[in-house]
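Bump. Still looking for Late blight resistance homolog R1A-3 structure tokens.
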Amino acid sequence: MDLVLSDLLQRIDMVKTDIKEHCITVSNLPCFTNLNTAVISVFIVDSLLDDLNDLINHKPVLILEVKDQITALYEELNYSRFFLKDIDVQHNKELIECVMRLRDLAYEAEYIINSFVVGEVPVWYLTMRLSSVILTNRVIRTKLSEIKMNLGIGRLEVVESPREVSSQRKNIPMVDEIIVGFEDERIQIASQLVGGPHYLQIISIIGMPGLGKTTLAKKLYNDSSVVYHFDKRSWTVVSQTYQKRKQLIDILSPITDLSRDTILNMDNESLAENLYKNLKGRRYLIIMDDMWSKEAWDDLKRYFPNDRNGSRILFTSRLKDVALQTSSHGIINELRFLSVDECWDLLQKKVFQKEGCPPKLIDIGKQIATNCQGLPLAVVVISAVLANMEKKESLWQEVASNLSSYIFENPNKNILDLSYMHLPIHLKPCFLYFGAFEEDRDIPIRKLLSLWIAEGFVQKREHKSLEDVAEEYLMDLINRSLVQVSKRRSDSGVKACSIHDLIRDMCLRIAKEENFLNVIKNQFSIYEQHQHLCIHSNFGNSKSRLFGLHIRSLLGYFVSPLFIVPSLKLLRVLELLTANGIKSHLVMGIEFLVYLRYLAIPWLPSSISRLDSLEFLVLGRADVIPPLLLNMPKLRCLHVVTLVSFSKNCQRSQMNSLQTLSCVHIIHLKDEDVLRCFPNLRRLKCTYNQSWNRCPDLSFLAQLESLSLVFLGNSKEIKLPMNIKKLTLSNIRLPFEKMSLIGTLPNLEILKLECDAFEGRSWNTKDDEFQKLKFLKLERLKLAQWNASSSHFPMLERLVLQNCYNLRKIPSELSDIPTLQMIEVHCCDIYVRNSVMKIQQEQLDNGNQELKVIISGTVWNFILKRTFSLSTRWWRRTAGTLVDAGSSIHSSKSKFI
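Sorry for the wait, here they are.
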């Protein structure tokens, strides 16, 4: 008996120890009690729902013992998610607290379930905690429902202001600001206001916050030619919360003889009636400053009569969509950044007024102006700081080193913060994620969208791919003037983007406050809980350790021999491709990262096949693509920077998820057959080996939309999928007589023929070919004569000719193509240049000033370079000016397509 009792007591002690260990483990659950917005709340609930759905439908074996509880939790949370609609625009304290509780509950559930899957907690503990989570969720959901019902969320559209409206004087714009730059823009927009059509026209000034939209509008409002031209002028500030009564009073007050008291005592119907009567038959200008939605215009437009007398409505907005949606016949003016010289000029005038800048401060002053990156708001805020500071070089140097901190300590920071606050909730994590990228670097769009998808930011939509939805998100941020386009694709889509340094600083500040993202440059504490979603680290030789199951993403620019992956078991994104000098033996335990969705790494890990959740794999190099990669169920993108071939052991199978594959080397016949494993492939970049002596056949890839193909073999035929939209061919050496193989592709929009893609001296295009082609590039072809008519390229928008040394001219018939927007000629014969200039002149004679022509280099320049080799640069003479054309030299470096 004593032995049994002793054994029982030992077992009890073991259980107590086990419970204590797991309680300690789970106590590491991140605490996020100080958040003041709902962005992470909705995102974390959506993320958990995706994970639960994946476990239930695709990995049931992992949760066999608790499947009923997991299913119940999914149903409960899915129901609760409905009550989170529209909460991001509410400021009710009780509602926000309730949402925060639901967020913390979702964090807890995600943490416990994921810890169970990776073996951190036992099943009994999971069962106990899930029961508690489900019960708590029901209580929170009930409370949410009650609060939303009391607030009437979903019914509030227009906010009515009280009868006491601020005085009229505040709405009459006074031009007392010092304005630098934008003189050309002022002249252009002024001519749009006083000239143009007779009908009521909407003119918009669009740009990111702080660019000077309102300042320019004030300048135009008080311009003498504008004052003289219009009988009535009025100004109203709409702002992010549209108040109909305030807008009616603002607009009516300056254009009526009624007293202020009379106006304030009118109801909305009387205000609208008087406004219409005062404008009827008069030529008027109404400026609506800081427009945030088209709903404000839709509600007011019926009060503005269209008497076809040249009246105008001028909007200012940071949202391009507002301008696009308000009028199909309007004019959109997108405001540019100031130049460095203009920034310096503005800074001097603001700081020194009419006095000049002391010589000792000129260099550091210009550095400060440069650091403002063309944003007038930044210049104005910093100028106010400098104007109230001693004119000492050391003090100015301190300002130059801490520019963003001075700006965000200023009340003007609210101008930038409003853009974030007004974002729909699904865009907020996408926007904050920009802080994870390096400063002053272009961000490749393919990489950005892939990361968004892997993070779970992109919501699924019926009949649309996640990539297409993610691109819509990006365009929304661009149209809101928060993101700038830095490079465009040949189809005019966005290839790379960037954000202003001040916008990036705002991202980092808000992201850190919300425990969303932290950029770490030095040592940090392993007990910090603010690295919830993404860490972009630069450790150098730091002794810091990366640890924490709460970390979901790691974008690394560091080298650390102590970096141990198993301590980050819940990672979803691991970016080490750009890690400086990282070695394979420094990163251990990748096989434990079962939740990993995005992996970018210099080499192929041997344990890659264990990562069942992986969707995006980017490799610096790989000798071969092993068979195990063909069996990864969710992999949708495989990109290898260097050329890679299939392993000899690869067998044909079905890999339904893969959509992007590059850069693969096709050597053997079975390699082409392996491609049949990828029926859903949309993008392919491949090179056929020189030993290939048969017709390359990719016609079986029915979903393929983009193909880049280098052919080093010997064939006079090619078979391509009919769905192809973008095609780049090189070295195939097909005769031009075979061009119909390409021209008859029904969906082809972009065609790039490079480096002997076709051979021959003459190309005669045919009827009914290239009917949808929008972009055509001919590079390094031996073509001498090109005959075509406008009907052969009825939708062509852009033509690029590069290094076609034998071509004598381009067909003059191309001038009759109504869609043609641009012709580029680089390093071609001078006669080609002359024929292009002739086409442009014909377009001008016909009244078309839209055709743009870019010409650089001539064959003579190329001959000089080849013959004498006196310089590493190419020079061209255009309009009598010697210009450096070194940037036009072709680069064949592989990129993430």
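Confidence is low (pLDDT under 50) at residues 22-36, 154-170, 536-544, 860-897.

Edit: fixed formatting.
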